What we know:
Layout: H1 2-22, H2 27-47, H3 52-70, H4 78-99, H5 104-127, H6 137-148, H7 153-167, H8 174-195, H9 198-221, H10 229-258, H11 265-289, H12 317-320, H13 354-361, E1 366-374, H14 379-392, E2 408-414, H15 417-420, E3 426-432, E4 438-448, E5 455-463, E6 466-477, E7 481-485, E8 498-503, E9 506-509, E10 512-521, E11 524-533, E12 536-547
Antiparallel strand pairs: 1-12, 2-3, 3-4, 4-5, 5-6, 6-7, 6-8, 7-10, 8-9, 10-11, 11-12
Amino acid sequence: MKKVFYMYSIFGTVAWIVLAMTAQMFIVDLFLYISILVLIPMGLQITNQTGKWTRLLVIIYPIAAVSSVLSHWYPIFSWAWWVFTILLAFFGIAHFIKQGGMYIEENMINFAWMYTAIGGTWLVAHAYNYALMGFDSMIVVLTANHFHYASLFPLLFHGLLGRELKSQGKVLSAPYKAAGIIMLVIPLFIAIGITYARWMEIAGALLFACSLIAYAVLTWKSTISGQRLIAKILLNISSVSVTVTILLSVIYAFGRWQGMTTISIPTMIMIHGAVNVFGFSVPGMIGYLMLTNKQHVPVSSIPFSKIKGTFPVGRHFFHKQGAIDEGAASLPAGMVDSMDLFTSASFHPNAIHPLIRSFYENTMMFELDVVPRWHPLFYPVAKRYKKLSQRMEQMNFPVSSNDRKVEVESAIFPLKDETDGRTNVRAWIRSEQATKKAFYVAAYSTHTNNETGERYYNIFFPLPFGGMTSVLRITHFQEQGVHLTSLSHTKHVTEQQGVYGSIGSYHIRLPINETIDVWVEDHVIKACHHSWLFGFRCLTLNYEIRKLKD
């Protein structure tokens, strides 16, 4: 799939050279076709995003690209390119949803593809010589170029730089994130300013300039060396060029704001356009092509349960699914058979408190008391959620510490690996003894990251039509304690921890995170379980875990 886009780019380069030598085209049109014929397929190759959408784009792209060229003489063909850009936008949206918007570098790439749909619309207007939004033909073609360059390649390159930094095991800095957020919103901000308010145009141009300068500085500071020295040189040329083009844009926007001509449009086309294409976009694309641009760990690399939830879930859910392994040689006693499974360079099971180890390996020998604390912002929602979770008989957390204490029935039993799809799976069901209604239904497993060798907890919660999976990384906490988290540790691209939602066979990263700190205090296990939604802490569960008396 990757080689197909590479070949498209090569053929596109040849086609563009032929157009430049034989067709009588305005220079702005030639700039536009470099993006369409050469750079966009190269970008699709570099970003290396796979799936059904990619296969669809592979089929449609050559038709759309040829049609975009024919639209120079026959406007009707411009609609084929418009359709392709719409599909490209949905491609970006689909990846954004799948990743849950959790990774800024991937958001940059996804939004870059989304913005191309606006460029496709302006290309149609240009082909028909239509004064879209009242602009003359020159502004229309320049706007088409803007959304095929300024709102595409800066975002794409910033995302690819983030991937490169993560592949080196670096944490993405605050300046990187701030520049990325500005790039995400400014193209539309500037477009609105050009149309309705000049002050927005100049403010947007200044902010965009700051974000691109930040990108240039980060590129210069990045440690790309050795055999990739040529890539480093090309990226440095690209980053210097973009500072030149953005400064010209600021000067031009300032002149428009003041009602005077600082740089003429023909001059902007020749200098700004040429530097943007041949100084920034082309060297940058080739530079990133020479790097190993690996996207954040794909969701498809994580083993998920094949079981789909129902409404309600209930204590007999796994029995109804026929998932119970009645012929198991032995019955599991805990969430995991042995904590030794998690042995790694960052976690040593022998260093944790024996009581904590016993709790994870012999969970049925312990009882749990929990005190909830909802964040005030989420408390009104918690009351409504409580009514739903009671009916659903799943993840039915107490709303306040004043809720009556209930006698709990707890059961752990083996599940069929072939039914679940993961290995060594066991269910843990907790129910109210009086009502026989479940409030916690989960299927526990573990899996190993094939790239790092690190083992994760893999906990599936069945929900109507699908489920939710918490993939938790385990490390040490204080003295002899453990820390489990869905949050990224090193921000490295190979990390798999996170909270994922499943509907059918489709899995997405949810904007949810959780951490669990476990320690021993006065011979009692204490645990603090924090949950976040969209980065805001919504619920804290404080546990006291005691060993049952004989």
